[in-house]
Amino acid sequence: MTLFRNAFLIVIVAFFLTGCKKENSSDNKSVDLKNYLTDNASGIKIGGIKIVQINTPKGKFNVWTKRIGNNPKIKLLLLNGGPGATHEYFECMESFLPSEGIEFIYYDQLGTGNSDNPNDPAFWDLSRYVEEVEQVRQALKLDKDNFYLLGHSWGGILAAQYALKYQKNLKGLIISNMMMSAIAYDKYADDVLAKQMDPKVLARIREIEKNKDFENPEYMKLLVPNFYSKHILRLDPNLWPEPVNRSFAKINQSLYVTMQGPSEFGLSGKLEKWDITKELPKITVPTLSIGAQYDTMDPEHMKWIATQVKNGTYLYCEKGSHMSMYDDQETYMKGLIKFLKETSN
């Protein structure tokens, strides 16, 4: 999954470029922007923000959500990656979805962003997060007639696992840039990605990892130009979009290391053996799998996912990497909007 670490503070000074041209379609003519933009919340208006209280085995906590727009047929809940990043890198959606009348909901998972952080690794658990998503769904009154779930990277693991248990509540599922097997992901990293790297650079990275010297500044100095700017986000690191830098700078390192492990190549945390490839045929709701040519995830595996679920579609981002909502933005957003609209009737 995406390998987000606090070393992204190196590039926090970058600014988001908003010059991407939005697509105009005939569907836009039917969008009732007055209804879309109307805040129907009772009481004092706070911009669509709703704090959801969740129950956990260790008590009650609050998680933060924010709704953009109104659409009774399409309500898209966004699950960010990391694990441990924040909703903020999804802010690029604001340049595309409102003009199409698509309602979407930001959500910071427990321990991230604007939500409570219990500072206890016992909470960093996939099955617990699945139950958290279900409680958020109930609080936001999302159901099988309107509830779409998009999970990116680690969020893709969470979204798929949620669907296996609660797909009766879903209208559609989007798995963005995440393979359905941590084991297959590790193999792809070793057999394909590592071999694309300068052998001397790779040897030094492996040496640092073998010594568990992950705080060594040299580690990130090697990874940023040789791995991140090739497979995470294919832009000059000094020009990375501001929402991406802002989100990554806030990553919860405890959550990241507990789930992902400290290494930037492969998994060694709780998710190390996660694999649901044999369970994919159980997913029957319309499912969009998004893969990219230069991703940390094998695009052929992402294509394969669409053949394993009962009602799958594949979106290929030819120019993109792991953050293809930025580096192949037109393809990503057009494909996402097309899927949402075609399955919303």
Automatic annotation (TrEMBL):
This is Proline iminopeptidase-family hydrolase. Keywords: Hydrolase. The keyword Hydrolase applies. Signal peptide: none annotated. Residues 76-328 form the AB hydrolase-1 domain. SUPFAM superfamilies: alpha/beta-Hydrolases. Belongs to the peptidase S33 family. Coiled coil: none annotated. PROSITE patterns: PROKAR_LIPOPROTEIN. Pfam families: Abhydrolase_1. NCBIfam families: pro_imino_pep_2. One of its GO terms (molecular function) is hydrolase activity. The keyword Hydrolase applies.
